[in-house]
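Table S4 entry, 2-oxoadipate dioxygenase/decarboxylase.
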Amino acid sequence: MTIPTGFSVWECGWVSRKEIAQALNMVLFIDLLARVPSGREYTEDVAARGGKVFHDHGALRTVRWNRNGALPPGEVAFTRILEPLGYRLNGVFRLDRIGMTGRSYAHADNPEEIAQFFVSELHPERFSSGFQDAVTRVLSTSKDPLSPHAQCLLHELARDGRLTFDDAADLLPQLETCFGRQHAIPTLADYEILLAESHEMAWIATEGNAFNHVTDRVGDLERLTREQAALGRPMKKAVEVSQSGRIRQTAFRADPVIRRFGDGQGGFVQREVPGSFYEFISRDRTVDGDALDLGFDAGNAQAIFKMTASAR
């Protein structure tokens, strides 16, 4: 992975907020590769050629619902982590076709090189009452993975902008646990209720708040698309282009995973469902050329989200 500039200089015994942010991004990137064979194979190909991937952003899904168990509703469960790490809101995107709102967070210290987070919230109130009841049954068992000690360290990080090495090493694995499923195994009946109205909520039911995708920032997206398709990789057919024309995105289709569901009689059944996926993006500089366009596009995002509509 390409490491942002500036990390060759550090303060002994201390870890800055941007260093913790970079470490968390790398841990979550590795976690996704362990779950997404197509992304792992692509990354291994890049490494074999002597190249490096450039992690542009990672994406996760949340549910803004007040019957969420012990887990704070929606993106609040993650802004309490991202803000102490130095992230600031960079854009808000209405994803009305899928009943969601997306928000991007860029790092204040190095926004062009440290990966952004794209955090989406699903709004159950926009769906049927039966759907909402199923959401409650699934999410009401949620636990809060952040211990009081971790919350204390986040407060100190927000206040001081750094932690001791030992505290940072203690905090990082606790932050990693937040990016997973915090609720109990759903029943197959509830999963099917959710799937009938929202592929995104059905995905959350099995995968929780795990990284939905990570993204490699590349120079020539069209060429990459042709190359990956020629290799037989599960490539999205079309490249999504933002309204500005400066942002282009495509992705592999989600790799399938086997998940367990309750059968409603005290037992379990297994089913193949969509897992996470690997995305690609290219970004041009803004019109005046002073900055890289770090924005997102609602149309692009909703099209990319379809990668988890079904297992390939």
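The radius of gyration is 19 Å.
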